[in-house]
Amino acid sequence: MSKFWSSAVKRSDPYIPGEQLNDPKIIKLNTNENPYPPSPLVLDAIKKEADQSLRLYPSPTVDELRNEIADYYGLGKDSVFIGNGSDEVLAFSFMAFFESGRKIRYPEVSYSFYPVYAKLFNIPVEEVPLQADFSIQASDFHSSEGGVIFPNPNAPTSLYLQLEAIEDILQHNRDRVVIVDEAYIDFAEESAVKLLHKYDNLLVIQTMSKSRSLAGLRLGFALGSPELIEGLIRIKDSFNSYTIDRLAIAGGIAAMKDKVYFEATREKIKRTRIWATQELRKRGFNVLPSQANFLFATHPDKEASSLYEQLKENKILVRYFNKPLINEYLRITIGTEVEMDTFFQVLDKLLKK
Ligand code: PMP
Fold it and tell me: Where is the Aminotransferase class I/classII large domain (predicted)?
């Protein structure tokens, strides 16, 4: 502890991200990145933008990219907010819609950044246990004091919550904001964006990090009523009006435009997911039915922590959470078919031991 630190720094309990090792030989199945490169149009657009114009500030209102995202969803530009990765959008949302005197609710097993923001911004929490099968029960989220947030599909469980259940949560929190963190939604059935016209308390947060292969560019966005979006803009402008740089804006627009590439890569990942689920089950794993770009799996006879270590020794990185309730599980990002083949070859060797 430093005597110079504010109480906010003292409260902080920073999120520890998954390992980012620089060894190119490593098969990286640990942080749910897309195994395929971004659309070639994205790279062209960034190269084109990397010129004299970098001298100038980017657009503080990011109108062009907001319009592109709004068009994709059939919304108005004033229903779209863009941030530097959805982590930033989440942080701004906690500040804009949650309060220090009112407890917010999120699932006990969900994205581990939520408790970090809550602590930093002094927001009290009620962590809601999941059902025995790891599913979310909507009625547990009725009448929250201060609002609700959950990922859909949930991370790290990979399970999808149906829109009827989300509507139920929205209806029972009319005066509070319900944030649906849809980081993985493009690999799932359907987005809660469909409900926006009915619920002014709904904020949907998405990212270009996963389905659009742009984790390195840091682009996330929120979709909601103009009232909620205005709240986010006010918070952003109180920190930094220019959170999105010129290269990211150019790349993001190109990524939204290239629908053909987007569809092709997400379909490939969904096909590999079905195949990899079957392969894990053949080897005795219990695998949750995933609607994300990762699998959550446990083996009855093998400790998850030692499998994680042994895979790592063999240059395959998966995610292991040393936390109660989930410490028997591995979270495995869907890689390319070739990467997954290697993963299964190594796994077979380890399972024989
Ligand atoms: N929400 C969830 C549930 C996630 O798993 C992640 C990725 N770690 C994020 C948000 C943040 O993604 P990004 O900041 O890359 O948009």
Answer: 25-345
